[in-house]
Structure formats: structure tokens, C-alpha cells
Amino acid sequence: MSAPRWGAPAADAGGEKAAGGGGLTLAEKLQGKGAASVSAAGMKPPAKLEKVKVDGMVLLKIIKHCEEAWPNLCKGTLLGMDVDSKLEVTNSFPSPGGATGPSVQPPTGGRNRMSREEEEALKAAAAKEDAAEIDAYKGDVLKLLKDINIDCNPVGWYRSVSLSSFCNAQVIREMFAEQDKLDAAVVQRSIFLVYDPHQTKRGNLYFKAYRLSDAFVQLMRDRKKQSSGGNKGIVKLSPAVVAAVGGLKNDGSAVMAASAQDMDLSAEEILEEIPIEITNAHLFTVLIEDLKERNGDRLDVDFDRLNLSTNSYLETNLEFMLEEVNELNGQQMDRNREQKRTAAIEAEQIKWIQERRAENKAREERGEPLLPENGDPNNNIFKPQNSKSNLESLLILKQIGIYCEQVNKFSGSGFSKLYLSNAVQQGHEAAAAQAQ
Amino acid sequence: MAETTATATAAAGEEAPFKMVETARQVVKMHPVVLFAILDHFIHRNEGQQRVIGTLLGTRTATGQLVVKNCFPVPHVEQGDEEVAVGKDYLQQMLDLHRQVNSNEEVLGWYATTPGQGVLINQQSCLIQDFYSAECGDPLHVVVDTSLANNVLGVKAFMSETVKLGESVLAASFVQLKVELQASEKERIGLDLMIKASKSRFDQSQQLQDSKQINTEVENLEQSMTRLLTMLENVSAYVDDVVAKRKTPDYKTGSKIASVISMVPRIEPAVFEKSFRSNLQDLLMVVYLSNLTRTQLAVAERIAKTSTV
Predict the structure, then answer these.
(1) Keywords assigned by UniProt (chain B) (predicted)?
(2) Does B33 sit within 8 Å of A61, measured CB to CB?
């Protein structure tokens, strides 16, 4: 439970009920929402998370785990403490089984959409089973760690990624589930760390801390509620229809407007990156000095960075990017089709309401009871459309954005290295000329 | 936790049943994470507790080479000189949990921190060694010197050999092994960062910092280049000094410098020019593409937004 907007635990419990019971009416939900915002105003929202302090040992542990599992992806739990504006990660332990997500190979093109959805459903079911197992495992480990005075306070989780390709619906859903659980149970501001074995090389470390933004978490929660709530017997009119006919009082429209507002989220706003700092305990510093003294140059990575080869990395990056752009294109085409369909349905709805109004007018004149104007739940055109979420396209946007950033960063240092080698070559030539 | 205690008493008599033999006939490879984990355990010890112990995990190659990759703490209680209680249940449970994640690692032995100033192994060590020989044959014992005697944090590894006279066991003799740090490329990168973090603690600036942000790639590159430059300057200053007869030439250094210089590949200027250009063009093209994509993204995002509202 992270969102300052939602704040109070009581209100959230109400939300959970709605998700579980499914029979809650909209009015009750809205009431719940109102109550939440009132009490949230009274409660001080937790301070914004400014940085994550990661213990050097945790970094090494994560590297070890992820490297050993590579090329499979893996994940684990982070333990630590929540102190003021920073989160201190002081220990970690791996989880059994791998993490979901695309593997090293870029996804093959030309996938069948239907079969992919089925596949995802299957995967989700399997993931649920795994999750229960992993939870049990976590509980066991935590119990044991408590006995030896380790902070057994889960503050987040880590996972390995390949070329930062973690922005897909499945991974995000997993993140959401974890963050939701952790935020509600232990800390208000859980994080997740990603470590990329593919990009950690030649002296550069790829290690980042993220958090799903509050706005996004809110959006996911709303959707979870909406999909499980069912809204039976209530007609939802889109704002466009309401605006077209005017003068309708409709709970549904309020909800639609609210969720549309939530959808107004740019790709950049899904994830918040939180700066990481590496810290060492005092004894660690002693050990490090000792290791440095004894191993000297063997630990030096400064010159690994001057490696000139760039092609394979850029190639893979571009390949991944191309794949995502294709996907985005498909999504946009879907969206266009859907928009056309929605427009047609809305036109029908408007027609229906206008006819009904005319009929009501006639009835009023005749003194007969009025018929409801808000639509007929039994009529096909008022059946709720399962509009496709734009979550996926948002994620693709974010993912492509990440690839672009990576390419730019990488080529930035590529340029520098290239010019360095140029300088060396020119110096060499000059020296040769002088010698002659 | 239901504590089953494995209590053992000294097999031999009152006399000190061990002696230390300093030979380095075998090398133990150790991953850095193990050392840090041991220290972390020591930092989190109970109040008043002298030392901590735990289990070492790793692999044993066919040739008998030990590679210590992992470890976990085990609670224990020492009472007097003759009695040690080790959390056997705890050890077993933790081991089971570890196996679920990594089935390749086996128990190699145990670690401990120093029980007192200047003491590496004491009476209880023999008992625990005895206990671990039931967990794995021929246990390895690693001692991390947390007493910081002689201002070093020493890491020492031992294997025990029993000294027998006929049937009766007289003593355990701990034979020291050589410990070598083994770090993969990725681990070195992690360590490098930790080194930088500990450096920033002792920065010239007065304020004490105890952490370090992860540098971006470009910052890292700059650092590498600066270092390369200072090294080159050092070398050229040395060569200048020698040429100007301010310094007596050292032939070893001279031949090293010569070999380094000869390692710079001789590339025909035309060939280099060509490859330089093509590389540059590749990079420029890629950057152009990615910027183009970014522009497209901005447009796509607008479309996605307007279509939902």
C-alpha cells in the first residue's frame, strides 16, 4: 500500500473486499474511495524514497546468484531497513526456480496473437503455483535468518534481466504483485533491483533500482477491482456519449472518467528509478584494503573499459528494438480498429438514448411512467466492451525508450573510445615519421 | 527452533591436542562474497559472543581442488573449554533450503572468526572440526582474523589430520593451506565498486562519506582514460629523465616500456583511416536511428493518449 492518495489501511481493506467478494456495488466502491481520500488527507504520506543504499555484500551476492543461473533468469529477496528518505538493503537471499521473462535470445518474429495469449494464461497459472512455493520458501529462510540476528525485514526483491528487457506485461504484473504485497505488509516503499549479466562487463556494472510509480500502482489496483467487481447490471457510458446527449446523471460515467484520467499516464511515468549507493561496513573496508594489498592489479578493471569492440552489443540492442517496434506497430493497428468499433457503438448508444428520450416525452404527455434513460443493460450495445488496455503499448513504449537510451549511452562512449584510438594511431604515425 | 545439540567432548586428554604445521601444499580458492558474508555474520553476532561459526559451501574438483563459493551462519554455544553445542537442526534446514536454489554446492567445511587476540584455533575448534567431519569427509576450516592483530584481516585455511598412535587418536593437527582469491569478471566489477566506495570514505574532503553511487558508463570511461593518461605521463617523465641523465637507467623497466610500446599495433594509415571512418559511420547511423525512434515514440505516445480519452 504505497499511494499517498489511498493512504489509510481501512480504506484499502475495503478495496480488498471488493476484489474478493465481487458483489460490491459501484456506489459502495465510490463511497470507499471518498472515505479513503478523506482519511488520506489526515494521514501524513510517507516521504518520497530518495535513494537506496545497497551493502557491498548484497551486490556480490546478487552477482553470484544471477551469474550462476545465467542464461536463465533468477530472482531473490532483499532484506533491510527503511530509514527516512532512504532504503537500506543489508542482506539478500535467492529464491528457488527462475524468473519469468524473455531469455537471452530475441523473441522470434511472427507470433500468433491468440496462441500467445493462451500461453500467457498458462504461464500465469504456473507462476501462481510457483509463487506459493516461493512464499513458503521465503518464510522458511526468514525464520532461520531471524535466529542469527539478520534483519529479516523484506524490503524488496531483485531479479536478473537480459539487456534491460523487463518492460513487458508479465514482468510488470509480477512487479505489481510483489510491490503491492510488500508495501501493504512491511514497508511502505519496497523496491526492486535489476541486475543485467548481459551488460555487466568490461568494467561497467548494470545495477538499477526501480519502483512502480504510485500513479501506476493505483491504475493497476483500479483495474484489478474493475475486472473482479463485475459491475453487473450497471451500464457504463463513455464520456463521449454522455457529452453528446448531455444531462445524464450516471455513476458509471464518473467511474469511466476517473479511470480515463488514470490512463493519462505517459510511458516515462510507469517506473521510477531510484539512485543506488553502495556502502561498506567498517570491517568490509578493512577486508577490501587487505584484498587490494594482496591482489593488486588482479582486481583492477579500469582498463577493461577501453575495449573497442562495440558491434555485437549494438547489434543485439538494435535487434531487440526492431522487435519491439514491430510489436508497437501491431498494437497501434489494433487500436485503430478498436477505435472505429467503439465509435460505431457509441453512435448507436446515442441513437438509442435519443429515441428513448423521445419516447419518454410522449409518455410524459400521456401521463405514463417514464422509462430509464441511462441505457438498458440487456441491450447488446450497452454490454460493457472489454476494451483492450493500453498498458501493453505503454510498456512497449517504455521498453523502446530504454533501448534507445542504452544505444545512445553506449555509442557515446564508443565515440570517445574511437577517438582515443585515433589519437593513439596518429601519435604512432607521428613517431614513425620522426624516426624516419 | 528445536535445538538438537551435538555435544562432543575432547577425545584426547588434557594436553593441548593440536599443533600447527605451516605448509602450503594445497591451494583453496575462495570467492570474495564468502569473506564478506563471514564478516557480516560477525558484525551481527550476539552481544558478548566471542566468535561466530558457519558452514562453507562450494565445489570439490576431481583433483581435490577446493573452491569455496558460498557460506551460511550456524548458531553455536561454547561452554567452558570442553563443550560446544552446534545447531545441527539449523544447519540441516539451512542446507536443505540452499540445495533448492543451488544443488551443485556441497558442504566443504566450516568457518570461524578468531576466538581471541592472536589465537586462531583453540580446543573447541577441534570439537567443531570433529562435528563437521560427520557432515563432509575431511572438512576445511577457514579462520578469519577479526581480532585485527597486526593490523591485518587475515584469512587462513586449515585441514586437519589426526595423529594416531595405534588405535587411539592422540591429537588433531591442523595443516595450513594457501588461500587464493578467485573472482570472476563480474565479481571484480562489483569489488571495484566496493573499493571505490571505501575510497570515497577516506576522501581528502573533510566530510565522511560512506557510500558511492554507481557511475555511468561515460564517467567510468573518463576515469579509465584519465588513469591511462597519468600512467603514460609517468612513463614519459621517466624516459625523459633517463634521456636527460637525471636518473640512472633501469634495463628491466626499459625493456618493459619497449615491449608495451611494441604492442601498439602498426596499422597502415590508410587502413586505419578506413576502419575508423566505417566505425564512426556505423555509430553515427545507430545514434541517428535511435533518435529517430525516440521521435516516433513521442508521437506514438500522443496517439495512445488521445485514443483513450
Answers:
(1) Cytoplasm, Initiation factor, Protein biosynthesis
(2) yes
Which residues are CB-contacts of A292 (< 8 A; sequence separation ≥ 6)?
A299, B195
**In chain B, which residues have their Cβ closer than 8 Å to the Cβ of A204?**
189, 217, 220
Return the amino acid letter for A112. N
Give the bridge partners for A336, in sequence order: none
Contacts A64 to B, Cβ<8 Å: 31, 33, 69-70, 187
Task: Give the three-state DSSP class for A369.
Answer: coil
pLDDT digits (tens, 9 = 90+) for B234-274: 888 888 888 888 888 888 888 888 888 888 777 788 888 88
pLDDT, tens digit, 9 for 90 and up, residues A287-340: 777 777 777 666 666 777 777 666 677 787 888 888 888 888 887 788 788 888
Confidence check: pLDDT of A15 > 50:
no
Tell me, what's the pLDDT at B25? 52
Chain A contact probe: residue of B68, B211, B213, B305 with most A CBs at under 10 A: B211
Q: Average pLDDT in the B181-198 region?
A: 78
CA atoms within 13 A on the CB side of B157: 23
Peptide bond into B265 cis (omega under 30): no
pLDDT at A123: 61
Tell me, yes or no, if A422 comes closer than 8 A to chain B by beta carbon. Answer: yes
**CA distance to partner chain B, nearest, from residue A94 (Å):** 7
- Name the residue ranges covered by the structural domains of chain A: 47-213+270-283, 334-435
Collapse the DSSP code of A389 into the 3-class scheme (helix H, G, I; strand E, B; otherwise coil) and give the result. Answer: coil
Chain B CB contacts of A285 under 8 Å are 198, 201
Asked if A429 reaches chain B (Cβ–Cβ under 8 Å), the answer is yes
B18-182: what CATH class?
alpha beta
Question: Given A53, A318, A420, which is nearest B211 (Cβ)?
Answer: A53
Q: Is the pLDDT of residue B118 over 60?
A: yes
What interhelical angle do B32-43 and A282-295 show, nearest 10?
150
Query: Which grid coordinates are listed for B211?
Result: 557510500
Q: Is B216 on the interface with A (CB under 8 A)?
A: yes
**Residue B135 — very low, low, confident or very high, per pLDDT cuts 50/70/90?**
confident
Whether the predicted pLDDT of A111 surpasses 60: no
DSSP A50: -
More confident residue, A251 or A157: A157
CA angle B230, B232, B233 (to 5 degrees): 60
pLDDT at A423: 83
Burial environment of residue B173 by CB neighbours within 10 A (0 to 12, 13 to 18, 19 or more): middle
Q: Tell me the longest C-alpha to C-alpha distance in chain B.
A: 91
Given the candidates 1.10.10.10, 3.10.20.600, 3.40.50.1110, 3.40.140.10, the CATH classification of the domain at A47-213+270-283 is 3.40.140.10
User: pLDDT at residue A252 above 70?
Assistant: no
The answer, for B289 touching chain A at a CB cutoff of 8 Å, is yes
